[in-house]
């Protein structure tokens, strides 16, 4: 399996959405392991601050189109791509069409576009690593946030498809599925986040630690909150009971 240091020393790593939160924690952790890190964020100032802190290189801009510039900034190759950028928009069927479209574009299509740009080189040389920050919502759901839940399910499905299609050709894929993490996204999640996520929230650095362990162990599914495995099992084995439990949370949300 190899230690994180062995896998990451001098690796060329791209982390999207790395100006803060989980992305910044990932960038710091990779850099501590000796990797060369390209820090991507829409906020150019935030990307430059994190890159300066870790001795990396800032590659600001849209996560969907960052691969060519990041590859150039890292000397012509990308070993590990962390598709971490995401948005959490709430509502249900009534949510604005633009919110649904943005959720799909950032949470799913940015991963697809990155893979499209990365795979030719990875398949040619026989190795590469794609790390998708999905969310426990991709395994379960999130009350009050249909655009987020639906697109995170799609992000997990795409990661699974990448893994089953290319693992025999040297491409490793990981899906990171945390629950509550103490970030700006959690602070903006409102009452639903307070009910479901805040009580067991962890620090972004704990997610990064789980990612390094998952890479070392070559695990597809990385669960910084181990209880998510129990919830996913309950959902799979008795869907009606699980839906009933989630509906009771929804009823609390409506009070």
TrEMBL record:
It comes from the Bacteria. Keywords: Oxidoreductase. One of its GO terms (molecular function) is oxidoreductase activity. The keyword Oxidoreductase applies. PANTHER family: 5-KETO-D-GLUCONATE 5-REDUCTASE (PTHR43669), ALCOHOL DEHYDROGENASE, PUTATIVE (AFU_ORTHOLOGUE AFUA_3G03445)-RELATED (PTHR43669:SF3). Belongs to the short-chain dehydrogenases/reductases (SDR) family. This is Short-chain dehydrogenase. It comes from Streptomyces aidingensis.
